[in-house]
Amino acid sequence: MRTFPVSAIVLLFCSLAVAQVKITTRSLPNGTQDAQYSATITTVRGSVPFAWSVCAGSLPAGMTLTPSSNTRSATLSGTPTTAATYDFSVTVEGHGGHISRVAYSVTIQPQTGQVVDLTWDAGADNIVGYNIYRGTTNGGPYSQLNTSLLAASNYTDTNVVGGTTYYYVTTEVNNQGQESGYSNQAEAQVPEN
To answer: What is the DSSP pairing of strand 84-93 with strand 51-55?
Structure first.
């Protein structure tokens, strides 16, 4: 009878905890009827691709939720057509079925007819455009208002609400696509209607 050596093979199983996707954006800014709106919903952890959806409610009329190219974030954008308060939930599902859901409430204010006109000094010779950012808290955070580079060193913000103070900063973008830091902050108080 022939015998064979017995080798003990120990298999070590590692339990790898897969980090679950989580939406980090807890609230969205309000908007104004018939004025362009854009807000980004961001995530942490999880394995892409992500699947985004709106459930439990509806987005403001005229707006859509669009995933980024890598699906790690999604942008709520468009031009809201109806003034009202909209309650809805956004769900993101990560690779492997992990889900994160956040409920939002966005109020679309009626158009006030008020505007804030901004101007700033032109930048260096290699500047190809500007970005403008706005916040409602002194020192930020700020959200970008323009969707494409501004060629001129002025901007008219038509998406303002009476009785609100806004804080603005700009950045410069050079011919290599590099964006500068924020400019000094400008404050604008929009009077009540």
So the answer is: antiparallel
Closest CA to 175 of 125, 121, 127: 127
The domain defined by 22-109 folds into Immunoglobulin-like (2.60.40)
What is the rounded end-to-end Cα distance, in angstroms, of the chain? 102
pLDDT digits (tens, 9 = 90+) for 24-66: 998 888 888 888 899 999 999 998 999 999 988 899 999 999 9
For the segment(s) 116-189, the CATH number from 3.40.50.2000, 3.30.870.10, 3.90.1070.10, 2.60.40.10 is 2.60.40.10
Query: Rounded to an integer, what distance in angstroms lies between the CA atom of residue 119 and that of residue 149?
Result: 15
pLDDT tens for residues 152-184? Answer: 888 888 888 888 999 999 999 998 889 999 999
The two three-digit tokens of residue 10, written as one number: 């120990």
Burial of residue 23, with CB atoms counted within 10 A of its CB: 0-12 exposed, 13-18 middle, 19 or more buried: buried
CB contact at 8 A, 171 and 120 = no
Residue found under tokens 């580079």: 149
